[in-house]
Amino acid sequence: MTDSVHNKGVGTTGNTDVIVIGAGLSGLVTATELTAAGKRVILLDQEPAASLGGQAWWSFGGLFLVDSPEQRRLKVRDSAELAFSDWLGSAQFDPGAERGEGPDRFGYRWAQGFVEFAAGDLRPWLHAKGVRWFPLVQWAERGGYPAGGHGNSVPRFHVTWGTGPAVVEPFVAAAHEANRAGLLDLRFRHRVTSLVVTDGRVTGVRAEVLADDDAGRGEPSSRTVTGEVELSAQAVVIASGGIGANHDLARARWSAEAGHLPGRMLSGVPDSTDGLMLGVAAESGAALVHEDRMWHYPEGIANHSPVWTRHGIRILPGPSSLWLDADGNRLPGPLFPGFDALGALQHVTTRGDDHSWFVLNKTIMEKEFALSGSEQNPDLTGKSVPLLLERVRGRSVPVRTFAEQSEEFLWADTPAELAAKMNALTEATEGSRGHVDGESLAALIAARDAQVATGLGKDPQVVATAAARHFVVDKTIRVSPPRALTAPQDGPLLAVRLSVLTRKTLGGLWCDETGRALTPDGEVLEGLWAVGEAAGFGGGGAHGHRALEGTFLGGCLFTGRTTGRALAAAL
């Protein structure tokens, strides 16, 4: 598919049924739902053609599915009712949302719809498009709180066989088909700078045409302007994503109750995730809600082979590592690895730190560490059974590569030696603070190991780790046998410095149950719609304050499909 507009000159115009802004997953789904209904669509994106598919291409491909065949084969008992109860316990929507009151009322409705989708049409819809899943369902965001609180009661994280690219591929194929049919006009290197509003209705967009650029997927691209264009349509859909690459904006919007996002952070998204369109929409009268709700991760490590600016990778940890703050204190329960990412992040930011630590050993790393992202999982992304068997045997090549090449993986034979290396790394990082006492670290490890040695123990993390091994997948590939961190056969000791990794925006454009953008007084802003992360994955905040993982890709799919079909019916 080629760009149908020359990236030179000024004043190119066009008319169509719908303009979709953003060629990521939610934009592709929306556009192809519309073209499937016979509507004419112009799909705009500021990046070169190489980045078609957006952030979703880089993802691990995890999807939140409920009562799936994969779960049932593993004897996991799940239901839509249990999943929605978990969702509500995590979301903590504002009072009145369930009665259709307050700013969370549409987010609540989208949450209901998403859980029904995850328990119903999502899997067969994708399966019919050729998508398949790794049979070993993962247990992300365990929570660790009493019933009714945050967390997944059962494993629901289904990793797509082929990871993010395999989720994106059917919709890219559908876009090519729609282009050949003359229904979809995909225009790269178009950055929308304003919406055209006529008599209170959005009727088009104004965009800068950016210089051609041969940047690869995810790489920063030129912002040199070579022309301008104004396009008109019956409706405009914003599918431009969130603010994850705009660290200044993320810091400004972070809730003061949770401290401050640090000055040094990593980015889990490409530079193009800049939040530009959220501001453009607000200038045209659309309401933004829950701007302080975000889903960043505390377990980031700098990519040794970066693609975009400040490129970070998230460690997907099993539960055995000790999680320490910048001064070497254990994070309070249930802030164990893999249990409550946002809670751990807020603990770090409330302290004013820019890092925390995992302390473990070589065996735990090999068994329990996985890395986020399609490029970090060549076995699953490449659908390679031999490489997958290496992972099961604890020989993950990407994890070993990070351990060998990263300056943030610190090895030592004793706790005192490990603490000295941790302090040296902190002292060498400008603006970083924290000091780990070697004797205190040795005592902490000894106390933990004594609990493991009992075979039972009262330490909550030791108990939770033992309980995790009751699930066959965790016992097989994700959770190490309970042994002392200092067991000679499992050494040496390892500390990994963890940094804040920006990722998702949970708030966004306030939308009704079909995706129509709303004004601050709750009225429909005619002609403007929003999907995906730009819409807070539905309604301006379908996740509430916390997410259950696997719901971001799913949210792009659900909002794109729902809004695409609703808009097609409305035209």
TrEMBL record:
Membrane spanning stretches: none
Enumerate the spans annotated as FAD-dependent oxidoreductase 2 FAD-binding domain. 17-553
Specify the domain of life of the species encoding this protein.
Answer: Bacteria
Q: Which Pfam families match?
A: FAD_binding_2 (PF00890)
User: Keyword Flavoprotein on this protein?
Assistant: yes
Q: Which UniProt keywords apply?
A: Flavoprotein, Oxidoreductase
Name of this protein? FAD-binding dehydrogenase
